[in-house]
């Protein structure tokens, strides 16, 4: 089998390692078949799409909607690298699944309006499939509404005509979308389980995803929730595109 690639941008070691472990568990792949590239550490290597089965993108600290003068040199580099990669991915309709930062990468590439209007605290929300989502093979078998972990400072307000809306929530209208037949992005985190979200909550407690005095209540709320469905997307992605 040709390998998959996980493009990651987390600078904090524990959340970065945990994210990779979550993708390994969710996809059922081993480290030989899921190559991790940490873009915050250095430039994106050349990715020969003919030698890959598909591309995953993890979450991260970058906000596409931030003013240019507030973006670091690393963020500017990463955004330029994604723009070049997505030119080829979209043109070839190559298998791509961006989780959370997928909205900032694929959404920005397609010209979506991205801003802070539909930002969501770290937590759990019910996500509902659209008609197109219920018919989409990547989401096959998911219930019409399911719980998912979220936590983001920006979101898509308006999708471009090139994108198909697949899932929404009451607090964030664009939770998942598709471009072409094989290029996907989610606002929610399909890779996260309870242990993973607890690691993230603690690691990013001072990063503005919730108020400084809300750490314990945020941890408790996450621990009470039942989130079991979204990770199925990762296994389905691999089963559909492994080659």
Automatic annotation (TrEMBL):
Sorted UniProt keywords: Glutamine amidotransferase
Protein name, please? Glutamine amidotransferase
Q: Which Gene3D superfamilies match?
A: 3.40.50.880
Indicate the segments forming the Glutamine amidotransferase domain, all copies. 50-193
Residue intervals passing through the bilayer:
none
One Pfam family here: GATase
> What is the species of this protein?
Agromyces marinus
Q: Which SUPFAM superfamilies match?
A: Class I glutamine amidotransferase-like
InterPro entries xref list: ChyE-like (IPR044992), Class_I_gatase-like (IPR029062), GATASE (IPR017926)
Keyword Methyltransferase on entry? no
């Amino acid at each position: 089998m040709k390998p998959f690639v996980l493009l990651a941008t987390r600078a904090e070691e524990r959340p970065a390692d945990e994210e990779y472990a979550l993708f390994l568990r969710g996809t059922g792949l081993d480290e030989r078949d899921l190559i991790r590239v940490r873009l915050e550490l250095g430039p994106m290597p050349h990715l020969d799409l003919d030698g890959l089965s598909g591309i995953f993108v993890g979450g991260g600290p970058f906000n596409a909607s931030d003013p240019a003068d507030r973006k670091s040199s690393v963020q500017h580099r990463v955004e330029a690298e994604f723009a070049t990669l997505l030119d080829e991915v979209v043109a070839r309709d190559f298998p791509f699944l961006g989780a959370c930062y997928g909205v900032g990468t694929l959404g920005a590439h397609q010209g979506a309006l991205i801003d802070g209007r539909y930002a969501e605290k770290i937590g759990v929300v019910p996500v509902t499939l659209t008609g197109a989502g219920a018919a989409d093979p990547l989401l096959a078998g998911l219930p019409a509404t399911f719980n998912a972990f979220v936590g983001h400072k920006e979101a898509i307000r308006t999708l471009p005509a090139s994108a198909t809306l697949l899932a929404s929530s009451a607090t964030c209208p664009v939770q998942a979308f598709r471009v072409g037949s094989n290029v996907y992005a989610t606002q929610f985190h399909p890779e996260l389980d309870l242990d993973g979200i607890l690691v993230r909550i603690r690691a990013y407690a001072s990063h503005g995803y919730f108020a400084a005095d809300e750490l314990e209540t945020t941890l408790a709320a996450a621990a009470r929730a039942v989130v079991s469905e979204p990770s199925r997307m990762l296994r389905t992605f691999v089963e559909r595109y492994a080659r």
